[in-house]
Amino acid sequence: MIEQLMQLNDGQSVIFTRSNIRRTFPDFDETDISGLYRSGSDLVVLRNDGSQQSLPADQIIKTFKDYTSRLPDFFSYLGPNYRGPSIWRNNCYVILKGWNYQKQGTTNLINSKAQNRWVDKFVCLDSEEKLIALLNQFDLGYLISPDGKSLGRTDFSIGSDTDEEEESTPEPQPFCSCGSYKRQQSVLSEIQQEIPGYQPTCKHMTWFKKYRELLVKRSQLIESCRGHVASNATAWYYAPPNVGEQHGKFAIIYTKQGQMAPLNKWRYYRPEETFNQHDAWGLFDSMIEKGFVPFPSTALPSIAHAFKNV
Alpha-carbon distance 300 to 259, whole Å? Predict the structure, then answer.
């Protein structure tokens, strides 16, 4: 029995992109393609010469889910001076692109300078549309609400039908102003036909949740320290990659003599190894798991000169 080739709907077109096919099958030839179709459990690639190639759709779906929710490196969405997400309003945050950490010298880019100018002023913008327009204009970052936007304050009086209104209020839905999230949201019902129960996500959402998790674990560790002062501490420093290079240098020193210990009480962590931005998440998790509180080197003046040769 020959199964009919079905045109991809808008939701399937988000999943079965040429990029996702190539990520799933590295040897895939994406040239001379006439169209992509669904047939049974396969994605069918129709080429200009009339030939067909069948690929297992479930593998491409897995790639779509994994890639869409991937975790970028720690510095990808930090603002100036290692600034994390900034609370805006209605349970939304501004997450900045890590322009300052992409390459040596990128602090002089117009994007980096605009971040410095606006980083403490986003809260002055009272309109979501105005804020997103500003973020897009200078490619500063995104507006994000991983737990869903709050509806804001509503007035009520005793004896009103507030209880009934609360029961009918829909659950807050997560949100990100990036193009990927908005595309998924716009065709969600069709994506769910292909992936039942699927909810939109993006790399910014994944990064935010991981960053928040790190802050919570770090805060809990500090609270467990006597006087909220860490006896076991690490200090870290990051040098962005030089132009033409892919990896920066991530260096760590540690002490068991207290976070305010003089520099001679600190030691380099694995000095024979070279770490980069992609190692940071795992190293932070390991520090906290072993009871060491991580600090950016800029937060500890006593060790300010420890990384001058990095």
Answer: 8
